Amino acid sequence: MCAAVRTHALALTRRLRPRTLRGQLTTGLVVLLALACLAVGVTTVLALEGFLVRRLDQQLTASGGRFAASLEHEATPDSDNRPDTRGQSEGTFGARLLHGTTTRAAVVRDRTDAPVPLTVGDRRALAGVPVDGDGHSRRLSALGAYRLTAVRGDDRDVLITGLPLRPVEETVHRLEGVEVAVFGAALAATGVVGALWVRLSLRPLRRVTTTAVSVAERPLASGDVAMPEPVPVADPRTEVGQVATAVNRMLGHVGSALERRQASEERLRHFAADASHELRTPVANIRGHAELALRHRGPVPPEVRRALDRIHAESRRMSRLVDDLLLLARIDAGRALDRAPVDLTRLVLDATEDARAAGPGHRWLLDLPEEAVTVTGDEHRLHQAVGNLLANARTHTPAGTEVTVRLTSGTEAAAGHSRVGLTVEDNGPGIPPELRPEVFGRFVRADHSRSRTAGSTGLGLAIVHAVVTAHGGTVDVESRPGHTVFTVELPAPPPEGQGPSGLADRASGPCQE
After folding, report:
1. Which of 421, 440, 428, 367 is nearest to 394 (CA)?
2. What per-residue confidence (pLDDT) applies to 265?
3. CA distances from 374 to 33, 231, 347, 408, 493 (A)
4. C-alpha separations of 355 from 276, 313, 345, 372, 451 in Å
C-alpha cells in the first residue's frame, strides 16, 4: 500500500513538474521567493507574538496581584473585604487556591467581579500553574486563552492572576492576514514579471533551438542540403552566447561535410552514368559475337562451347547491370519520368504472369479489388519496380514458397491523402536482421540464409526504392522467419483520373496456380 502511494506521488510530481527551461526557471524563482516570504512571515509573527506576550507579562507584574489578593477573604463582601477591581483591566482573571483546590475564581467585567464557573479540567489547569511569578499560557473553558501568573498568598494559599490572550491572538491573526495578502500579491507579480523576464532572457536560446530543429528536420542522408543561417550571437561572454557560437561552429563543420559528400556523390553519379553509357556498346558487341559463335554449324569443341555459353550468360548479366546503373543514375540526376494514367491492376497481372512463368515452382496468389486501380506515373518504370519485387521473392525463396500479391485502393494516409497500396508477401525464410536496415541499398545481396537460384546484381530493390520515391510514394519491408512483406504506397489520382475497369473478370478475388 505504501509503495503504491509513493509511486502515485512520484508520478503526480513528474506530471506537475515544468518541462520547459522557462517554466523551471520561473517556478524556481517563485518557489525561492515563497520560501523567503514564509521565513519572513513566520519570523515576524513569532517576534510580534513574543513581544505582545512579554508586554502582557509586564502588565501582570505591574498589577501586583491585587485582584487575586482581594479574593483571599471568603466572607460576604462588604466595604472592607470586597474584591479590589479598581485599576484592573477588563477581563482580568483572579483565582485563589488552597491546598491545590480552587476556592474562588472571578473575572473583572464592567468594573465588577463576576464569578467564573470552572470545570474539572479548568481546576486541574489552574493547579498546574507553577508558583514562580512568571507568565504561563492556559486555556479556560469559560474564558478562553489566558496568560496566568501564580504567587504565594499571606494565608499559605496560591493567588493566580491572569489577563486574556485574545487581543494578542487577534493582533497576530491580523498580521498573518496582511502578510498572506501582501506576499500573495508579491508572488503573483513576481511570477508574471519573472516569466516575462525569463522569456526575454531566453530569446537567444530559442533562436538556437529553432536553428537546431531546422537542421534536424532536413534530409541530411542524401542530396543537396541547404544549411540554415547562423545563429545571431549577441554576447559571446554569456552562456547562451557560448552555446550559439558552438552551434554556429558545428553548423559550419556539418555544412562543409555535406558539401564534400554531395560533391563525392555527384562525381560517383557521373562516373556511374558515364561508365554505364560507355559499357553498353562493348557489352552488346560481346553478347552479339557470343550468340553468333554459338550459332556456328560446324564442329565446336565442348570446352569452347561451354566458354561461349558462359560468355553469353555473363554478357547478358552485364547488360542488365549496366541498364540498372544507368537507370539509377538518371533517376538520381532528377530526370523527369513519364506522367500518364497507368492501369496498375493490369500491370500487376502481367508482372505476376511473368513471375509465374519464371518461377513455376512457387505458388503465386493474387488479391485484387474488383475495380481497376489506376495511378499516374511512368508505366514502364512501375512495371520494372513490380517485376523486381516479384523477382526478389522468387530469387531469394525456395521452391514451394507461397507469394501473395495484394493491391488496395483508397487507403487514407497520415496526411489525409488517398493512397494506393501494393504488397508482396511470402512465407520464405525471411531477411536477416542485420540486412533489413540497408535492404534498399545498392549492391546489397542477401547471404546464405536466403537461397539463391539465380544471379543477382544487388540493384533490384534499389531500383524499386528509386522508382517509388520518384513517383512520390514510399516502400517499406517487414520480415521475420516465415513472413516477409514489402509494402508500396503510391499517391492515388483524383476520382476523375481513374482508368477503365475492363479487367474485373481477371481481378475479381484471389486467383492462384
Report:
1. 428
2. 66
3. 68, 48, 10, 11, 7
4. 27, 20, 15, 21, 17
Residue 423 CB: number of other CB atoms within 10 A?
18
Instruction: State the pLDDT at residue 183.
Output: 92
Q: Which residue has the cell 555544412?
A: 255
Please report which helix (H) or strand (E) contains residue 387, including its range: helix 379-395
pLDDT of residue 15: 63
DSSP 25-36: HHHHHHHHHHHH
Higher pLDDT, 382 or 495: 382
pTM: 0.49
Distance CA 159, CA 231 (A): 83
Please give the angle made by the CA atoms of 184, 53 and 97, to the nearest 5 degrees.
140
Distance, CA of 246 to CA of 236 (rounded, Å) = 10
Closest by CA to 512, choosing from 385, 405, 373, is 405
Cell output for 315: 554478357
What's the start-to-end Cα distance of the chain, in Å?
Answer: 63
**Residue for grid cell 493547579:** 127
CA distance 80 to 72: 12
Backbone angles phi, psi at 176, to 5 degrees: -60, -45
Q: Compute φ and ψ for 62, nearest 5 degrees.
A: -70, -30
Give the number of residues written for the chain: 513
Write down the pLDDT at residue 5: 61
Q: What is the pLDDT of residues 141-164, one digit of tens each?
A: 888 999 999 888 877 888 889 999
The grid coordinates listed for 441 are: 541499398
Is there a contact between 137 and 150 (Cβ–Cβ < 8 Å)? no
Residues in contact with 405: Cβ distance below 8 Å, sequence separation at least 6, in sequence order: 348, 352, 364, 365, 366, 367, 390, 422, 423, 424
φ/ψ region of 87 (left if φ > 0, alpha if ψ in -120 to 50, else beta) reads left
Is 38 in a helix, a strand, or coil?
helix
- Grid coordinates representing 150? 501564580
